[in-house]
Amino acid sequence: MSQRILIVEDERKLAALVQDYLHQSGFETRIVTEGLEALPAFRQFVPDLVLLDLMLPGRDGMDICRDIRSSSQTPIIMVTARVEEIDRLLGLELGADDYVCKPFSPREVVARVKAVLRRGGGKSEHQSAGLQLDEQGYKALLNGKDLGLTAVEFKLLRQLVAHPGRIFSRSQLMDRIYPDERIVSDRTIDSHIKKLRKRIEAVDSESELIHSVYGVGYKFEHRD
Asked: Which one has a higher pLDDT value, 78 or 177?
């Protein structure tokens, strides 16, 4: 599955150029040119990384970064024409993972995107939780023991584990697990989550890894 990059940039030609370079590197992308459209697009697209311009019509990139960070640890690279050190520091303090200053080379942006995603793919939370995923065999091991998941349960767990701390709505999970757009009810996701929790509990009754967020959806989080 291709990694998804949300490009929030009001300069359309620049956004399209960056998009082309990201496509050449195998990424799936979506472009948003208005600040007010950024959060709805983030929730609907569920990107693996956000390229976020600082100066946007409708809403400032700093505010958007702050809102994303209030509920998600999705990597954010700030893109800015402001070169003052205070802006750089503020962007990072708000939770941005990196920044790129305009003007820039599209190749540099792609390199930064790959670097940030690699950092995110290092020692992740699910590894510290004793959970290992075998992508080839569709198997999940908890503390070395096979959870015995179905293919759908594995896809669901993989989606949650790939983004520790990120809250997914039921509709987002359905879109990722059933890409053929079959009609599936919210209750189907709830049922899969219930079965996943039972399988995890059967192996380790102390491991509470999948958490409900009331009125929103589910997230993967290891709490010591």
From this structure: 78
Interatomic CA distance for residues 135 and 59, integer angstroms = 40
200: closest CA among 155, 142, 117? 142
Dihedrals φ, ψ of 44, to 5°? -80, -40
Domain-ending residue, one of 120, 146, 177: 120
Domain that holds residue 105: 4-120
| Mean pLDDT (whole number) for 11-30 | 96
The 10s digit of each residue's pLDDT in 83-92 is 665 455 555 6
Instruction: Tell whether 134 and 101 lie within a shared domain.
Output: no
Cα angle 79, 85, 86 (rounded to 5 degrees) comes to: 95
Alpha carbon 43 to chain centroid distance?
A: 10
Collapsing DSSP to helix, strand or coil, 84 comes out as: coil
How far is Cα 36 from Cα 102, in angstroms, rounded to an integer? 22
Strands (E), the chain: 4-8, 28-32, 49-53, 76-80, 98-101, 131-134, 139-142, 145-146, 168-169, 210-213, 217-220
Cβ atoms of residues 6 and 30 within 8 Å: yes
Q: Say whether 217 sits in a helix, a strand or coil.
A: strand
For the record, the structure tokens of 47 come out as 């990107």
Q: Domain total for the chain?
A: 2
Residue 208 contacts by C-beta under 8 Å, 6 or more apart in sequence? 223
